[in-house]
Amino acid sequence: MDHAERAERFIAGTYPRARIAIVAGSTAREERTATSDTDLLLIGDPLFDDPTQSSEAATHEFEGEIFEVFAYTPDGFAEWADRGLDNHRPVIVHMLVEGMPIRDDGSLDEFRAHWSRLLAAGSTLTAEESAFRRYVITDLLDDLHDAEDPLEQRVVANLLFERIAELMLLSEGHWVATGKWLPRRLRSLSPERADLLGDPLLAGDIARFAARVEIELRRAGGRVQAGFVR
Fold first, then answer.
1. Which domains, from first to last, does the chain contain?
2. Count of CB atoms within 10 A of residue 55's CB?
3. For residue range 180-201, what is the model confidence (pLDDT) as tens digits?
4. Does the reported pTM lie above 0.85?
5. Strand 55-62 relative to strand 20-24: parallel, antiparallel, unpaired?
6. Cα separation of 74 and 129, whole Å?
């Protein structure tokens, strides 16, 4: 099955006024698995029946395929893309820049160029946010050191992996992610540092994992506790 052709049939029947359509995710990268869906970014004006609506995130089933749709007017896209940049996780900007176009009204190249520049500039971590993130990590580290229940240890360690991985990325101007994309982004930053952090967690070696978190925390500015005001 040609996934681009099926996506075009879906768009024609469900979002016919879309002027830009981009297939993203594993389908665009030709890395689909048995459970992969199709991620679609759609932009158009007017795109929705309601003229006041500017965005929609929706899940559809079509011809046996699940479509995860992110649909926007141009103003709606700009609003949500800016939010993503501010939150260090510009998902729809990555979709726009890295996905596979299947509709283009002639404006896509200029649109992509603008957002590509912002994406390439990287993320900026303020001193205030760095301190807050390090405060949270410090607290989680102490909880991990104190935890004796194996389930509590695993839950805290997993949270700590997410928080320290985000700090590692942001401290060097990289964008963050959630789920499977967080370790992928971390490996793109440094395969060696990703393995040094992840290997003891996978092995259940809590002490070694905590020690590695301490190293990365010092690298990012160190512990934050007494005197911190939030």
1. 3-121 (3.30.460.10), 127-219 (no CATH)
2. 16
3. 999 999 999 999 999 999 999 9
4. yes
5. unpaired
6. 30
